[in-house]
Amino acid sequence: MHRVLWLIVAVAFVVGMVIPDDPEPEECPARDTRVVAPYAVTGYWVIPRADRCVTQRMVEAVHAIGGDTLITFGPRFNARRDPDFPDCLADGRPCAEVPGVRVRQVYTYMTSEEFGQGMLRCPGIDRRIGGERTFYRLTLAESCAAAEHDLVLVATDGDGLGNLMREASAYGMTVFPGLPAASQREDKPWEPDAAHTAALNAFTARVLADYRARFAGLSAFGGVYQSFELAMRARAERDPIISLYAAQHAVVAAALPGKKIVVSPYIDARRGRGFPPSQVEEGLADIAGTRAGLPIAVAVQDGRGTGKVPVHGPQEGGARVAPRLVPVVGEVTNAQAYYGPTSAYVEAAARRVPDGAELWVNVEGFEPTPAEGECGRADPLPPRGRTTKARLDQQVMASGPHPVKIISYGWDPFFTCQARYDTPSLADDIAAGWQQPIIVGARAEERGGRPGVLVEGYHLRGGTLRFEPGGAVVAQESYTRGRLESAWVPYAWPWTSVTATNAAGHSSTSGYAIRAER
Questions:
Q1: What whole-number distance in Å separates Cα of residue 327 and Cα of residue 493?
Q2: Where is the DUF4434 domain (predicted)?
């Protein structure tokens, strides 16, 4: 069954809605804009592809399982020599040499997009250079007649970002392309090199002006993603990453008024290396303070994929860590290894979300290390393994009712890889099991003088709730649908875990747990 579903999701040969003002090239199949398996995760990091038909298949596959948001990483604005940057020649000379022009600094930038003519402002210096690979040479000087110039050499493999924007618009989706990522310090690569911030901002302004012109008619352009990572914790007074955010986001506000900035900070619950949940509220405030008047979505990384944060229930502090976390923290208990689970960090962040900000959660769709016989990612390092749909359900559950949106890193390869050609991918498993309920919240609630339990989550409608300990099964008496679905059953305490079975006969892959001392 899952192969049939995934053929619908990924191959998309079924005829669907065609956008009239964007005719299909003959070699690509007609678009199928149906959502056939709407899952709780609605956004994914994707890799832009120069092939338009490959892009269409990817966008259609994400859309079919309920995805409405696509995010890309911004390429590195590299101040040091990049050994992987291909040779660029202009009129037989290295592109970094411009006759009659004194060049002070050369930056490199490898991307998957083709800029518009507006990027070329200074004749003789700014150029688009064709050949086996397309290059752009751009000056960052304020005046074309400046005494010296900083140059950016851009190498592109095609218009992957343009393809993504056009396809996402056809499917009613939103794209957040990555901002140019700051050059890193050589001695502290986790920090931006402040010596190049002015050049980065000048280049960012050029790129965003080009986006404003090229994507003006495309509904998918929702804003930008801040590609330089940081921890969502209390930070120093003059933190270099917060300073970078403030400077670059001011450029975004000037170039793209009203657009949204997406940031995805990480949390780290490991004792001795990370920080407790009490620090995330201040970290969220610091990040939101860089928004320069724009709306900002802070999509906290849940930490389970990297092994930095567990997703256990509140009563499982004394239990041994999950087997897939042992390579990260060792054979110890959850409480010995971590300050707390994902749920504690998300709850702490949700207590005070600053004005102008939204709290999202980025559930990491991979395992810290690959297991034998398992597909995943080998490059770039470190290698990561493929997770399961049930584990992903647990991460959604741990996010609780707090996030406005749940997104995931990353679509390719973690949701698409297969151990063998005849085994399902994670996306296959989602397509097959999307109706399985996921409970994200539960609380006691009286109705008409009767004790009861109200649960919130996804795909709850109809059916029953099962309570542990004891195994009592109680039919739903009421159901409502808003941002999350809610179901109420008449049931008295005590209980420690609840599992849903909906009217379609699908059951939760994991029980929602509460503290035993209720």
A1: 39
A2: 160-313
Cis peptide before 410 (omega within 30 of 0): yes
**C-alpha to C-alpha distance for 190 and 210, rounded to whole angstroms:** 29
Please state whether 50 falls in left (phi above 0), alpha (psi between -120 and 50) or beta.
alpha
> What number of other Cβ atoms are within 10 A of residue 102's Cβ?
9
Which residue type sits at 211? Y
Q: In whole angstroms, what separates CA 467 from the centre of its chain?
A: 34
Q: H-helix or E-strand containing 204? A: helix 197-214
> CA-based Rg of the chain, rounded to a whole angstrom?
25
Sign of CA pseudo-dihedral 365, 371, 376, 378? positive
pLDDT in tens, 431-460: 999 999 999 999 999 999 999 999 999 999
What is the per-residue pLDDT for 26? 56
Measure Cα distances from 479 to 38, 39, 443, 464 in Å.
Answer: 19, 19, 15, 11
Residue in the block written with tokens 């956008």: 19
Q: Quote the CA–CA distance of 271 and 152 in Å, as a whole number.
A: 42
Successive 10-residue mean pLDDT values, the chain, 518 residues? 39 35 67 98 97 97 98 97 94 94 97 96 96 95 96 97 98 98 96 97 98 97 97 93 98 98 98 96 98 98 98 94 97 98 98 97 97 92 96 98 97 96 96 98 95 97 96 96 95 93 97 75
Under DSSP, is residue 223 helix (H, G, I), strand (E, B) or coil? Answer: strand
pLDDT at 131: 85
Bridge partner residues of 270 (DSSP) = 338
Nearest alpha carbon to residue 40 among 479, 474, 472, 456? 456
Euclidean distance between CA atoms 478 and 333, whole angstroms: 40
Question: What's 7's DSSP letter?
Answer: I
Determine the Cα–Cα distance for residues 288 and 263; give it in Å rounded to an integer. Answer: 9
How far apart (Å, rounded) are the C-alpha atoms in residues 458 and 473? 19
Given a contact cutoff of 8 angstroms between Cβ atoms, the answer to whether 360 and 404 are in contact is yes
Q: Print burial letters for 237-254: b (CB count within 10 Å at least 16), e (below 16).
A: eeebbbebbebbbbbbbe
Residue 201, both tokens: 């901002």
Handedness of CA 168, 170, 174, 180 (dihedral sign): positive
Query: What mean pLDDT, rounded, does the chain reach?
Result: 93
Of 39, 32, 37, 59, which Cα lies nearest the Cα of 48?
A: 59
